[in-house]
Amino acid sequence: MKKWLLSLCMVLALAACDDKKETAQANAKLVIKIGAILPLTGSQADMGEAAKAGMYKAIDEKDKSSLHYDYQFVFEDNQAKLASMPAIANKMIMQDNVDAIGMITSAMARVVAPIADQKEKVIYAYSIEEENYSSFGKYTFIQGISTEAIADKLIQLFHDDKLDNISVFAENIGVLGSLTSYLDKKLSQIGIKYEINTFNPGERDFRIALEKSKSKGFTNFFEVGFPPERDIIIKQMGEAGISNQNIYSFSLDLGKSSVAYDGMKTVSYNQGTVDFIKSIQQKYNIDNVYGSAAFYDFVSIVIEACESLYKEDQKPTAEGITTYIHNKKQYKCASGECLVNQNGFILNQPIVRLYEGDDWQEIKE
Amino acid sequence: MEYLINLAILFGIYSMLALSLNMLIGMGGLVSLAQAAFYGIGAYATAIGMTSLGLGFFTTIILGIVVNAILAFVVGKILARFQGDYYAIVSAGLSIIVFSILQNWKSVTHGPLGIFGIGKPEIGSYTFYSNTAFLGLVMVFTVAFYMLYQWINKSSFGRVLKALREDEHLTHVMGYKTKQYKSVIFVLSAALSGIAGAFFASYIAFIDPSSFQLKEGIFLFTIIIVGGLSSAIGSVVGALILISLPEVLRFVGLPYETAAQLQQMIYGAMLLLMMIFKPQGLFGKYRM
User: Fold this and answer.
1) Which of A178, A315, B46, B224 is the most exposed place for a label (fewest CB within 10 A)?
2) pTM for the complete prediction?
3) Residue in B with minimal Cα distance to A72
4) Pairing state of beta strands A351-356 and A361-364?
């Protein structure tokens, strides 16, 4: 009897397990993998961490029970090196089976675009405003910022402060190089005494150049650089005896730990609204958030496209996602509304804020 | 498979670079950090030649060789005056100057925005469009580099270079024009690096100055130190290890949150251990 009861229990238990398995299989959601190739180590690791936080925020905000797919992330580190991009992209596509890949620069997207087109995967990157930038790949989306619009705001600031001269120290790198070109053009138009000193990434000593500018009669200084060059040059401006009120700096979504002096003005381009930036800094415990908004937008739009395609009984293919984003033309992003053109270029609204002092007190937007 | 082909292409390109650098450092004892500069010039010659001048890939290789040879000849004359650490420092200076030119001569190089749309090699009507075909071509050149290295190594020119490496003064006293030997090997090494650069530009289809910084020269130096100085096989194995090791670590299954940092630490530790137990490199015939 005991044996019979035991056998019955075992059969029931096995049946229950099988039943659970079947229920689980019925409930199992299909997985959509979203990859990101980021600089997670090295000098630009901050940017990679900010991008990751943006991706997590996009998924954390969703009501997971209402989603029809299980969205998973795959991260790979490339230390911002171009040479490793094709191999990593291939690994992500063939080994990890990702459906979409995000990366931090349009240069990387240019390298990956032919692979993504061949394997039919969506790719996403952010860059400066250049409307043909997305046209190098069928499934490529580039989110851009208008460096010309930022330059306009800077000119307005110099005008408001009644500056009669300005010496610009600008890092010659991607987005900052583009901003400097516009600044050069616009400064020449308004007839202010100015000079542009460009420096390469990795330069550390600006003291001689600063002294030279001072000897030419320049009293106002504006730095346009990424950290750590940005922080070094501001410190050296202070050491050179330049008054804090005469120092202007530029920031791309930098946090409050970046160098600023009492009385100094910082013009900050932010990819997201104030609420977005604050929430991401608090929840994910990061300071510099350059990249968070772009990757938040990337994940958000991919999820939105996949869910929408599901409701229309269509598969979330690269073609489907691309068509969805193109047709949408305009969508809600971290900075408010973003516009998509026929090439897949997504124009981010430029939010430029003016901060003053070492505590980064916001003066105006 | 496609992933492995991509890695194999990179391995081929870095093997060419390592072989050309080992001719200079391993055979001649001339510690140069300028290799990234010549690599970059070769890449830009192909990029500009193919996108702006409409030249074919193989013509741009010749263009890169000529530009590199002229520059190396001029710079080599200056470098030939130096020895040891001074040679390394001056060559590092050249690397920084070339990077600065690539970064700032915007009308030609497009500065930090780089050059895109670089085509694939063509022979007649055949285009090496697929990665497999491209890999085949890269391997043909890698083997040619390897054979050239071995040929020079066994030649009387190679023997003089090795003598120069051991004792430049004594070699000079024996009647050899050591400065000329140093110049010739510097020009040859630079020209060969340019070929590797051409392949890199065509493979990646987009180049910007960030790929040709001084740290790239240091990376190449690390390859031949790990593989072994004055050894052709050491150059190839060194490239294989330094290209594949970080990639192998991607598959170790480390948690995503910390994988990148742990990979770097493991990579560094493995190189450190290799240097502790094999200070002359895996196939080194000469220790600095």
Assistant:
1) A315
2) 0.81
3) B256
4) antiparallel
